[in-house]
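Reply to dn_fold:

You asked what the input looked like. This is it:
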Amino acid sequence: MSTSKILPYASVVVKLLKGPVEYVEKGAWEKLLQYKVELTGFLQQLGLLLVLDEQDGYAFVKHALSEDDEAYVSWTQRRSFSYEESIMLVLLREMMAEFEISESASRELIKKRREIKEYAELFFKEGASRIKFLKEIDRLIDKVEESGFLHKMENHEMIDEQKFRIRKIIKAKVDSEALENFQQQLMAHAGNAVPAE
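and this is what came back:
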């Protein structure tokens, strides 16, 4: 097959179908911006919408049609989160909101695992065992990283010193309305312990 027949933005389409693309992936990001009009048109033919936030530096695709529609085709992975995982997402989103109103010169929000755990402790009431409780918080952090909302910057021999970048895509997945609603629920559920699996 002749390479001239391959779409110049094919690699970006493949990346978008696998997950979000961020500005830190320089080559893919530049190609995405260069071909955003063509990409939008091509993805629409697949029943997908390109969601692009140039300011925050992320892009992802979502379905243009509802599941009830006859022409609906599922291209992207659906993830469902437990109540505790949802709380962790909202807490990370809250950290992002606080970071963005601060006077930080940095574009990225980077936190150590220890700092995320300390922040989470304010919202999760610990159960009988503190060690078990902290392990559960670690599990939630790992789950959120696996889901693509945290990016591990470096490994550290001390697990609590691991650094994570909180990915801005979280702003698209947890919008300000969802954040507000969840904060109200958090206040109501603040007394509940996190159940261990």
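The CA atoms of residues 112 and 163 lie 4 Å apart.
Hope that clears it up.
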